[in-house]
Design goal:
This protein has 363 residues and is an alpha+beta fold. Helices cover 39% and strands 19% of the residues. It has an 8-stranded mixed beta sheet with strand order 1-3-6-5-4-7-8-2. A hairpin with a 2-residue loop joins strand 5 and strand 6.
Length: 363
């Protein structure tokens, strides 16, 4: 069996997609009650803790049937079966696993089959490490319905077991999907530790290790939606919880307006090949920049003062913010509308002429 971490040969049979189940069934021979294992070969070598096995008993009909899987070292597992079809998630131990599958209708065993699967180890790739992050003041319990609470039900020990089980299912599912698509039973490796809960040392098997990490963040901080990376405040929530919201938005509006004004001024300067600032204000461009800078610096304490009264003036401020954003948006839109293809072409020509003149003068 292919090691799940070695490179695949494109011409290898294992890279070919699996044939339809109907073809597998037609190619099989035997009595109508023979059990067919559809996705696992006899004496196959795998590298995961659990494996998904599905099969069929051809002539079996029934809605309340079941499939029972017996392992010589591990507890038996039972799953429902319908009209001869079954699927089972089977636990494997390291080494050779002699599995017995019994298809039952009531107490009657209709069909029985044995399957040998070997579980190997691969250690040439780093394992996936599992971890549970706890708040610094966590009571080490997770939310559960009133009837499902208590030691071993919703405490830290139960959370570790649930996460371990989830990781086993991830591992088994990934191996199955890779196999169905012709890539072998490739899957990730889990970091393991000795099973301290095993009562019989002779049957003790390593289990996935779950690290417990105690954070410096409080439970309230972890549950605060404002700390979530994907959180976006609604219109009603804007400014309600964040005192700095007004300051940030005022600064953003002022910056947007300055950018739009600067773009409009530069565009008009280049189109007319003159300094609009001198025509409008009787000042040089440098003087206009100094005025703009002074206005910007003067706006900072205004913004700071406005942020201090946000709680008392929230309705008026919200209205003001909406109007400010509207004006800024309209200014930006006007600039973009002014930048028609013909205008953009003139701007490019002006820039190219200015560059050419500079190159001719200094180079």
């Amino acid at each position: 069996m292919l090691n799940p971490v070695q490179e695949l040969d494109a011409d290898s049979p294992i890279c070919k997609p699996l044939p339809p189940y109907e073809d597998i069934i037609k190619a099989s021979s035997g009595s109508p009650n023979d059990m067919l294992i559809l996705n696992v070969s006899q004496n196959e070598v795998v590298y995961q803790h659990y494996i998904i096995v599905h099969g069929q008993v051809l002539e079996a009909k029934g809605k309340d049937d079941k499939i029972v899987v017996h392992h010589p070292k591990l507890p038996s597992l039972e799953y429902p079966a319908i009209d001869g079809y079954f699927k089972a998630v089977v636990e494997l131990a390291y080494g050779v696993n002699e599995l017995t599958f019994e298809y039952k209708q009531g107490a009657t065993v209709v069909s029985q089959s044995t399957l040998t699967i070997s579980r190997g180890k691969f250690t040439d790739k780093p394992p996936l490490k599992l971890a549970i992050l706890l708040a610094k003041d966590s009571p080490e319990t997770f939310d559960a319905p009133p009837g499902a609470q208590g030691p071993g039900i919703n405490d830290l020990d139960a959370a570790v077991k649930k996460m371990r089980c989830c990781a086993y299912l991830w591992q088994a599912y990934m191996a199955e999907m890779m196999y169905r698509n012709g890539c072998g039973r490739r899957t990730f490796r889990l970091e393991e530790e000795p099973d301290s809960d095993a009562q019989d040392e002779s049957t003790q098997q390593p289990r996935a290790k779950v690290h417990i990490i105690r954070s410096q963040t409080s439970l309230a901080e972890m549950r605060d939606k404002r700390n979530a990376q994907q959180w976006r405040p609604s219109k009603e929530e804007k400014g309600e919880h964040d005192p700095g919201f007004l300051k940030r938005n005022l600064m953003e509006s002022i910056d947007n307006f300055e950018v739009a004004l600067g773009q409009a001024s530069a565009t008009l300067d280049m189109i007319t090949n003159s300094q609009i600032s001198e025509r409008l204000f009787g000042m040089t461009s440098e003087q206009v920049k100094n005025v703009d800078r002074a206005i910007h610096d003067a706006s900072v304490p205004v913004v700071q003062a406005a942020s201090q009264v946000v709680r008392n003036m929230r309705p008026a401020i919200d209205e003001f913010m909406a109007a400010t954003h509207k004006v800024a948006d309209e200014t930006v839109k006007a600039v973009h509308q002014a930048l028609t293809p013909d205008t953009r072409a003139k701007i490019r020509t002006s820039v190219m002429n200015a560059v050419k003149t500079t190159m001719d003068n200094y180079v």
